Hints:
- With about 90 residues, the chain is mainly alpha-helical.
- The protein has a domain at about 30-85: Winged helix-like DNA-binding domain superfamily/Winged helix DNA-binding domain (Arc Repressor Mutant, subunit A, Orthogonal Bundle), CATH 1.10.10.10.
- Helices cover about 40% and strands about 10% of the residues.
- The chain contains three helices and three strands; from the N terminus they run βββααα.
- The chain has helices spanning about 40-50, 55-60, 65-80; strands at about 5, 15, 20-25.
- Strands 1-2-3 form a three-stranded antiparallel beta sheet, covered by helices on one side.
- β2 and β3 form a beta hairpin.
- It is globular and about 35 Å long.
- It starts with 5 loop residues before the first strand and ends in a 14-residue tail after the last helix.
- It comes from Caulobacter segnis (strain ATCC 21756 / DSM 7131 / JCM 7823 / NBRC 15250 / LMG 17158 / TK0059) (Mycoplana segnis).
- GO terms for molecular function: sequence-specific DNA binding.
Amino acid sequence: MLQQQRTNSRGEKYVIGPTGAPLTLSDLPPPETQRWVIRRKAEVVAAVRGGLLSLDEACDRYKLTNEEFLAWQQSIDRHGMAGLRTTRIQQYR
């Protein structure tokens, strides 16, 4: 599901993140992120869906494969944010 991109009072583009708060490029996880918690994965997916980053930009920035990102997106679509839990992945298959 695509989101509508908006602009805040400072002229920054943003989308509504997974917690319901505005999400700008500066709010995204840093490129050197090693620990991917559910919220961070969901923020990256929301940014791509909202047009803040393209799929290729997200994969380059976070050193992800297209398949890994698409798996995150598919997990959210099928099971919500809980589907992003790596310790629970077998229960959702």
